[in-house]
Amino acid sequence: MAITNHERVGKALELLKTGLVPFVEREFKAKYGTSYGFEMKDALSDTRLGLGKGDSINDVAALLVVMDRKWSDVFRQVLGKTDRSLVNEIIAVRNKWAHQEAFSSDDAYRALDSSVRLLTAISASQADDVEKMRMELLRVRFDEQARGEKRKTAGIAIESGVASTLKPWREVVMPHDDVASGRYQQAEFAADLWQVHLGEGADEYLDPVEFFRRTYLTASLKEMLVGAVRRLTTDGGDPVVQLQTNFGGGKTHSMLALYHLFSGANPTELPGIDLVMQEAGTTKIPKAKRIVLVGNKISPSNPSVKPDGTVVRTLWGELAWQLGGAEAYKRIQADDENATSPGDVLRELFNEYGPSVILIDEWVAYARQLHDQSDLPAGGFETQFTFAQVLTESAKLAKNTLLVISLPASDTSGSQNAQSEDIEVGGTRGREALDRLSNVVGRVESSWRPATAEEGFEIVRRRLFKPLSDPAQFKDRDVIARAFSDLYRNQQAEFPPECHESEYEQRIKAAYPIHPEIFDRLYTDWSTLVKFQRTRGVLRLMAAVIHSLWEKGDRNPLILPANVSIDDPRVQSELTRYLTDNWVPVIEKDVDGPNSLPLKIDSELPNLGKVSACRRVARTIYMGSAPTTAAAHKGIEDRRIKLGCVMPGESPAIFGDALRRMAGAATYLYQDGPHYWYSTQPTVTKLAEDRTDQLKREPEKIANEIEQRIRKDLAFAGDFSRVHPIPQGGADVPDDFDTRLVVLGIGHPYSKESNSPAEVVAKTILENRGNAPRIYRNSLVFLAADKTRLQDLEEATRKYLAWDSILRDEKQLDLTPYQVTQAQTQKTGAEATVIARIPETYQWLLVPVQPDAQAPLAWESIRLSGSDKLAVRASKKLRTDELLLASFAPSRLRMELDRLLWRDGNHVSVKQLVEDFARYVYLPRLRDSQVLLESIREGVRLVTWANDGFALADDFDVTAGRYKGLRGGQIIDSIDPHGTSLLVKSGVASDQLDAERVAQVDDIAGGGAGGSGSQTSGEDGTSIPGQPVPMKKPSRFHGSVVLDPTRVGRDAGKIADEVIAHLSGLIGSDVRVTLEIHAEVPEGVPDNVVRTITENCRTLKFSDQGFEKD
Question: Model-level pTM?
Answer without folding.
Answer: 0.57
